[in-house]
Design goal:
9 helices, 81% helix
Length: 225
């Protein structure tokens, strides 16, 4: 067996790939589902927190700032482990999926809140005053005047964080979530061959590259107008 044949036999073994493709496919679906859930809940929670912060109620603002600062300081893996092993101690055991979803959603919400708040605070205060002077209520002015501009300004940093956080679905393997990486590691151990890990790597590219390309298109065509 020459060098090239040995390389492909080791890393791209078609027999092993065919054997473990169904398990990796199921893991990829879990990764997709978890990632999509994290994007939706994390972004919406971050948006809500930014709006509440804009109310400028001091105790509420201090709580939101503390939440964002603490969650941005902690690695997502630490949050995940604390929830998975800590909640059962107070009678709230959660599944691996729920723990992964909640942990990554909280992490994303902290970054989303800061990104959107930065967009809100970068706008001139006169915009809100002008909108209110036309008879709009505070919420209507925020919804139709402030938020569209703030979100537009937040898109570059927000999309980068979304990509970064959703890739951390692989951390679910620590709590036995049978997502893509966990399935690939198990298959690789059982087969004694790294082909499943190479399949997982290619699957991550297939899953996340469109998101990266879309975020670049969004920044170019929407943010820059």
């Amino acid at each position: 067996m020459d060098g090239n044949s040995g390389f492909f036999y080791t890393f791209f073994n078609l027999e092993i790939a065919a054997q473990y493709a169904p398990a990796l496919g199921a893991g990829a679906l879990i990764t997709l589902g978890t990632g999509a859930a994290v994007v939706v809940t994390g972004t919406l929670l971050g948006l809500l927190l930014a709006i509440l912060r804009a109310l400028d109620v001091r105790p509420l603002t201090m709580a939101i700032v503390a939440f964002a600062d603490i969650l941005r300081s902690l690695p997502p893996l630490v949050i995940l482990i604390v929830l998975y092993f800590g909640l059962p101690e107070i009678g709230l055991p959660l599944s691996a999926f729920l723990v992964t979803w909640i942990s990554l959603s909280l992490a994303l919400a902290a970054y989303a809140e800061e990104s959107i708040w930065a967009g809100i605070s970068s706008l001139p205060a006169g915009q809100m005053e002008a909108a209110r002077s036309t008879g709009l209520a505070w919420w209507s002015a925020m919804r139709w005047v402030i938020l569209p501009q703030a979100v537009r300004r937040a898109v570059p940093t927000l999309t980068n964080r979304i990509i970064s956080i959703t890739k951390n679905t692989a951390l679910g393997s620590v709590v036995s979530l049978n997502e893509l990486l966990n399935a690939a590691q198990g298959a690789s151990s059982m087969s004694g061959n790294p082909t499943p890990l190479m399949m997982a790597a290619m699957s991550y590219v297939i899953i996340f590259l469109p998101l990266v390309v879309f975020s670049r298109w969004l920044e170019k065509n929407w943010v820059r107008g």
